[in-house]
Specification:
Structural class: alpha/beta
Number of domains: 3
Bound molecules: 2'-deoxyadenosine-5'-monophosphate, fe (iii) ion, zinc ion
Strand content: 15-25%
Oligomer: single chain
Number of strands: 19
Helix content: 10-25%
Length: about 525
């Protein structure tokens, strides 16, 4: 049997009871005769070894054929894509960040899955783990909002002939004026008009949206602290301006999403809630089993948008519904569930509000202790939010706590739990994952606003509200994944009927979505 494809090497190793580090597989694939090399390696591995490690391969190959292990992999027909696996030029993977450490296969690459990991390309482009500088001082709040205004304002400044707040009040009454600023206050007036105060680095200026103007429809979707541009006419006394037009940073209508060069799929899920009595183990197992079938062989990436575990003390009386009360044991149980996912699938995960990281956003990726507990499947663990690129397709992952706020503040037809993707559209329009400060969403003051959506993603993936919904906004695919937790008592009390046990699967070559149901 020819053994050159990494997948077949993994299959061969697992059939003989071994897991393997990714690097070890890559090196075997690079040998001039991978089949013979594999036999040599297996003869040389220590008897009690369960995992074939890079050093085993290096030792076995260098003893017999010093050059073979360094040869280019033979199974990378697609020369254009950057394989996410190392090609064997870095002899010391130990120095790499945790997200890039070698994978153990989880022990299962069944015959039904025929994949070639060398064709993959996974890049983490935005991960603020380890970048947090904020100390919670007043100055940090000033800098995070200044950064927000600079970056989102920059997207608007070319579109209007803007002036600073202090300059506007010195202009003659009746002038045409424009300003870019943060929404500081939204109030209705006694006569039913709307007064919106915009703030920039120089001060604030009040803008009046008349109730009979077409723009009045947009007022009900405004959130405090988002960045807007307004154009209008100054009142005679220059103390206020009447709004003629209102602009969001928004996604340009010309946005054209990137797609993968081959047929490959990603499963986008979230809210597993292991440790909750309502965690649906059967549905999860059915999902994992399905991933092992030929039908799912193109699913090569699994993105998890937070709430891996139920956590402890997240909500009042939550302990009454806990199946596992110790947070570390919850992660251990979660890791066991992760191991059921085929070992070759690349996993990326961000934390959510139930996870054991700081609640304030941005949330850094899990700490070393938790990474260690979850290391068996070698997931890439990154911050909430983060941007990842899968074979050229950029995915903005964000857990979604701000969606509760968007849904609470906006009218039903613009954002609701039944259409969670529509709430996501507003975050895209505002180019910020959590615009409103001081509500449900806790924001960590940092030097930089990591919550700004700087680059338009091809896919926006959130969770948190436990409802499945997807759709396109200016050609950006917005997906809110459901959950793996049946209805909790709290959800029953507020009539939240969760979409549990579904896995939306995205074709990365077309951005089409299919939904698999496991409950
Ligand atoms: O959130 C799941 C969804 O349910 C999300 O929309 C928040 C809401 N939720 C759940 N429990 C509560 C309590 N106790 N108070 C307020 N809102 C709640 P998750 O993050 O998975 O708990
Ligand atoms: Fe959740
Ligand atoms: Zn959540």
């Amino acid at each position: 049997m020819p053994l050159e494809a990494p997948a077949r090497i993994v299959g061969e190793l697992t059939s003989r009871g071994y897991n393997a580090e990714r690097e070890a597989v890559t090196r075997l694939a690079g040998a001039s005769d991978p089949g013979a090399a594999l036999e040599r390696v297996l003869e040389a591995v220590p008897e009690d070894a369960l995992v074939v490690r890079t050093e085993h391969v290096e030792a076995a190959l260098s003893a017999d054929a010093p050059d073979a292990a360094r040869a280019e992999p033979t199974a990378v027909p697609d020369g254009d894509s950057t394989p996410s696996v190392s090609t064997g030029t870095d002899p010391d993977p130990g120095d790499e960040p945790a997200g890039a450490t070698p994978v153990e296969t989880g022990g299962s690459l069944p015959a039904d899955r025929s994949v070639d990991p060398a064709k993959r390309a996974l890049e983490i482009v935005g991960d603020m783990t380890g970048q947090s500088t904020g100390t919670g001082e007043y100055e940090d709040f000033v800098s995070v909002f200044r950064d927000r205004l600079d970056r989102l304002g920059g997207k608007l400044k070319g579109r209007v002939n803007h002036r600073p707040a202090t300059a506007i009040q010195d202009m003659p009454g009746g002038s045409e004026v424009a300003m870019v600023g943060l929404v500081n206050d939204i109030r209705s007036t006694a006569s039913g008009h709307w007064l919106i105060e915009l703030e920039d680095a120089t001060g604030t200026f009040p803008w009046l949206v008349m109730k009979d103007r077409e723009y009045v429809d947009l007022v009900d979707e405004l959130l405090c602290d988002e960045v807007l541009a307004m154009e209008g006419t100054l009142a005679d006394d220059s103390g206020i301006a009447f709004v003629d037009s209102l602009h969001f940073p928004d996604v340009p209508r010309t946005h054209e999403p990137s797609t993968a060069d081959r047929h490959v799929q990603a499963a986008l899920i979230s809210d597993v809630h292991v440790g909750s009595q309502e965690f649906m183990a059967d549905a999860w197992n059915a999902f994992a089993d399905w991933l092992h079938t030929a039908e799912a062989e193109h699913v090569e990436y699994l993105l998890l948008a937070g709430d891996m575990v139920e956590g402890v003390g997240v909500y009042p009386d939550q302990d009454e519904e806990l199946d596992i009360v110790d947070i570390y044991e919850q992660y251990e149980a979660f890791s066991e569930h992760l191991k059921k996912i085929p070992g070759d699938i690349e996993i990326v995960m961000i934390p959510g509000n139930h996870d054991a990281v700081r609640l304030a956003e941005p949330q850094p990726g899990f700490d070393e202790e938790l990474r260690e507990i979850m290391s068996a499947h070698d997931p890439r663990i990154v911050s909430n939010p983060s941007m990842v690129t899968l074979e050229g397709v950029s995915v903005l992952m964000y857990h979604g706590v701000s969606l509760d706020e968007v849904i609470a503040e906006l009218p039903e037809d613009k954002a609701s739990y039944d259409d969670p993707h529509k709430a996501m559209y507003h975050l895209l329009k505002k180019r910020h994952v959590a615009p409103q400060f001081g509500g449900h969403t806790r924001l960590a003051p940092e030097e930089e606003d990591y919550l700004v959506i700087d680059e338009v993603p091809d896919i926006f993936h959130t969770g948190h509200v436990h409802k499945l919904g997807f759709g396109k906004y200016h050609d950006v695919l917005a997906i809110n994944s459901g959950c793996w937790q049946a209805q909790t008592d709290f959800q029953k009390s507020v009539n939240i009927d969760p979409d549990a046990g579904f896995a939306p699967i995205v074709d990365l070559d077309t951005l089409d979505v299919t939904v698999q149901k496991f409950s």
